[in-house]
């Protein structure tokens, strides 16, 4: 079955430290891949997306993600975290033919001063 | 340009009551979606629509009905609410399916007692 896995439920980093959030997918073929961010009490906002081509994708707010086909991964990174990055992050995939976006269970990021 | 709006923002129902959640988008998108978000489970697709007058089941459709009479509106109905339907409901829309970004509304928090 198609699935998206985010193995880290909760991560705490210090402000200014680097960040990597993990995402693995299980699909028959490479899906379209997305990272969304959700601030408390808000809807979801798209950070970045991967369809094809360059495996390093740049997004908003200084985030980037790298697609690795061999590892079925699409990890999100940021070189220096700001306190305002504290939020929940969701990885999602769409197999294309189904129009259905499958979400991971989310990673809650806390930022220490 | 308001994007995706949802009405109401909060609602408390008693078991067995009915209600309708309204989603509206002003981006002339073809596709619209209803998700529910529960702690530790990410977002799960309830129903979706690929155009005016069409609807289709998602991952967790039981207990819900939908209608897309106008392109800009997507209604989610609960005919007989159950405590298991306590959740945060998000509506989303996209230009098309597949690689196209989904834009999310702010959510409706529903409690069924």
Write a structural description.
The complex is a heterodimer of chains A (113) and B (113). Chain A has no helices and twelve strands. With 113 residues, chain A is an all-beta fold. In chain A, strands 2, 5, 6, 10, 11 and 12 form a six-stranded mixed β-sheet that branches. A four-stranded antiparallel β-sheet of chain A has the order 3-9-8-7, with no helix packed on it. A two-stranded antiparallel sheet of chain A has the order 1-4. The mean pLDDT of chain A is 93. Chain B has 113 residues and is an all-beta fold. Helix content of chain B is 0%, strand content 49%. Chain B contains no helices and eleven strands. In chain B, the strands form two sheets. In chain B, strands 2, 4, 5, 6, 9, 10 and 11 form a seven-stranded mixed β-sheet that branches.
Ordered list of secondary-structure elements with their pairings:
The complex is a heterodimer of chains A (113) and B (113).
Chain A: E1 3-5, E2 10-14, E3 19-21, E4 24-26, E5 32-38, E6 44-50, E7 56-58, E8 64-68, E9 73-78, E10 87-94, E11 101-103, E12 107-112
Parallel strand pairs in A: 2-12
Antiparallel strand pairs in A: 1-4, 3-9, 5-6, 5-10, 7-8, 8-9, 10-11, 10-12
Chain B: E1 4-7, E2 10-13, E3 19-25, E4 31-37, E5 43-49, E6 56-57, E7 65-67, E8 73-78, E9 87-94, E10 103-104, E11 108-112
Parallel strand pairs in B: 2-11
Antiparallel strand pairs in B: 1-3, 3-8, 4-5, 4-9, 5-6, 7-8, 9-10, 9-11
């Amino acid at each position: 079955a198609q699935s998206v896995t985010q193995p880290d439920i909760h991560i705490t980093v210090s402000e200014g430290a680097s960040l990597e959030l993990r995402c693995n997918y299980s699909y028959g073929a490479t899906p379209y891949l997305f990272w969304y961010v959700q601030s408390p009490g808000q809807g979801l906002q798209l950070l970045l997306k991967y369809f094809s081509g360059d495996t390093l994708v740049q997004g908003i707010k200084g985030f980037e993600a790298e697609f690795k086909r061999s590892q079925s991964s699409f990890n999100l990174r940021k070189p220096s975290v700001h306190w305002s990055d504290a939020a929940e992050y969701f990885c999602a995939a769409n197999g294309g033919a189904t129009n259905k976006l499958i979400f991971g269970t989310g990673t809650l990021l806390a930022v220490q001063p | 340009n308001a994007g995706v709006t949802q009405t109401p923002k909060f609602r408390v129902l008693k078991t067995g009551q009915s209600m309708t959640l309204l989603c509206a988008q002003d981006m002339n998108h073809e596709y619209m979606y209803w998700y529910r978000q529960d702690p530790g489970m990410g977002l799960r697709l309830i129903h979706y629509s690929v155009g005016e007058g069409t609807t289709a089941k998602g991952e967790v459709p039981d207990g819900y009905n939908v209608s897309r009479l106008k392109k800009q509106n997507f209604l989610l109905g609960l005919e007989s609410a159950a405590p298991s339907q306590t959740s945060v409901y998000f509506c989303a829309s996209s230009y098309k399916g597949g690689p196209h970004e989904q834009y999310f509304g702010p959510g409706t928090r529903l409690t069924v007692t």
